[in-house]
Amino acid sequence: MKYPLLKSLLAMGTVVLTCSCSDDKASPSNEGGEVSFVPCEDAWYMPAEGFVIFRAQEKLTDLTGTQIGTIVNVLNTDVVIVKDLNGNNIINQLDLNDESRVKFIAGVPGNCTLKPNVVPVKPNVSSCEAAWYLAADKNYLIYTDLIVTDEAGTPIGSITAMPNTTIVNMLDLSGNPIINGIDLSTLPVVEGDGVRYKIKEPAYHLKDATGDYLIYPTTVVTNPSGIPVGYADFATGAIKSLDQTTTLTTAHIAALPILMPNGKCVDFDAPVPPSSSSVVTPPQPNSSSSVTPPTPKSSSSAVKSSSSVAKSSSSAVKSSSSVAKSSSSVVTGGCPKITVKGGASGSGFASRYWDCCMPSCAWNENSGGNPTKACDARGKNVIGNGSGSVCSGGGGATCTSQIPFTVEGCEEYGFAFAAVPASNGGQCGKCFQLTFTGEGHYNSTNPNTKRLKSKGKKLIVMATNIGGDVQQGQFDILIPGGGVGMFNGCSQMGWGNQGQQYGGLLSDCETEKNYKAEQYAQCLTDKCNKAFGNDTEAKKGCMFLVEWMESAGNPEHNYTEVECPDVLKQRYK
């Protein structure tokens, strides 16, 4: 495919279908096992079930091309997990090399009779420039300059073209293949609307019939030009007018795409570090004060980790105590006294994240005069809080000294820092006791989560951050390798692979070990050592998930507010 062809296709405002794919219902294999249909891309056919697996797009279809499920690729193998559209397992493990059950069929893009139905463009997806829209394992926008972005316009890769055709291959930012054999002529086009978005930091993007909104974790809502138009209620999803008397629209805010500073249609206005005599002063909702703090950073793990995908079927349990513990993660001094305050209480679950962003509570205005410390971009040296967050062009980051830890002689207690729901507000420096119930939040109950209860473990957490995507009762625990979530400020840390965006290294282990919980501890230990080989402190924090939390993903708990013990206070400041 030549570059001018890309331009001409988009200039037409539509896509001419050059693929000879037919809408006629494909027939199953003929007698003798011969297949009588040709897919537009490589596929695996299961004659007994009538299933067609499009592995690159992680889709399961019937013989008409109608999607009836999804597939999960088991890393570095030819094994897949087959699921229905509700996420229930249809086939726990399917080896695509099993010729007695599966037939491989090479795709022929220009002469095919079966393809997965093209998913139309989502109504709320827009772009300042015309782009092709591909719904596969995620939603992609493909531009004429060969750049590939997610639906929010954040670059995630590029395409390479096959000469003199409309067939392209998609690569990630490191040059690794994502999807091959994409026929651009079969894809719908998102018309460019010319709208650009002025942001000072990452923001949720909502576009519907009522307007075009940027939603910040501070609850401030602006139009594309950055002018405030209202406030967001993260608890209810309501977007209200500036006087808060009118509801403009509602949305599931945590599920919205996020506009990032390097986005395709974004103009990033990096914040200027304030002088000692200046304060940023846009309006603040529900406050008599005219001062609004610099925008806090959201935590990251409201989206469920892949531990929600399947339960472990194994009954064999290998205790994580078999993994060598790092004595350097233990604080001496005896078990601190934990006193219940009688404040907030309830039930919920513990997720995990480490995005390196400067925490919300590092700003005086957010913390009620009790700010937590901020560190330089490598997380080591404590700095002032006037430089802004590394996640919005500043120099402040989370301090790695705020990793989770234990106290010698106090095995039932662990200590950590966490993000709490943005809708709660005013909880900086407050502490809570999480008592684990032995259950997993996303149907992920396994021997690891049960062991937290059987050992009577309780986690004492101190709030240092807020998250617009954190649910009521959820505590998003700061654990290195827990997943960067919504924002990633870890580029200067010198760390290795941080695993899946939501759930991090443990989520990788769950997938790689086919949800066999007894194998998570060793897998996670290996990944902690590899990711943080040059950062002893961060590695200790990563190993807390192995050693104290039993490699348990998203465990449920009952929580109650407690007096903050000195061992947490000393690391807060």
Structural notes for this entry:
- With 573 residues, the protein is mainly β.
- Among the domains are: 3-17 and 117-190, no CATH class; 197-268, no CATH class; 339-356 and 401-572, Barwin-like endoglucanases.
- It has seven helices and 33 strands.
- The chain has a seven-stranded antiparallel β-sheet, with no helix packed on it.
- Mean pLDDT is 81; it is low at 1-33 and 272-328.
Topology:
Elements: H1 3-11, E1 43-46, E2 51-54, E3 59-61, E4 67-73, E5 79-84, E6 89-95, E7 103-105, E8 131-135, E9 139-142, E10 147-150, E11 155-161, E12 167-172, E13 177-183, E14 189-190, E15 197-199, E16 203-208, E17 211-215, E18 220-222, E19 228-233, E20 238-241, E21 247-250, E22 258-259, E23 266-268, E24 330-331, E25 340-353, H2 364-367, E26 374-375, E27 382-383, E28 405-407, E29 413-421, E30 431-440, H3 447-454, E31 458-467, E32 474-478, H4 504-512, H5 520-531, H6 536-547, E33 555-562, H7 566-572
Parallel strand pairs: 15-23, 24-28, 25-32, 29-31
Antiparallel strand pairs: 1-2, 1-7, 2-3, 3-4, 4-5, 5-6, 8-9, 8-14, 9-10, 10-11, 11-12, 12-13, 16-17, 16-22, 17-18, 18-19, 19-20, 20-21, 25-33, 26-27, 28-29, 29-32, 30-31, 30-33
Low-confidence stretches: 1-33, 272-328
CATH topology of the domain at 339-356 and 401-572: Barwin-like endoglucanases
Tell the overall outline. globular
Please tell me the CATH architecture of the domain at 339-356 and 401-572 by its name: Beta Barrel
Taking the alpha carbons of the first and last residues, their distance comes to: 58 Å
Instruction: Indicate the mean pLDDT.
Output: 81
User: What is the tally of beta strands?
Assistant: 33
CATH class category label of the domain at 339-356 and 401-572:
Mainly Beta
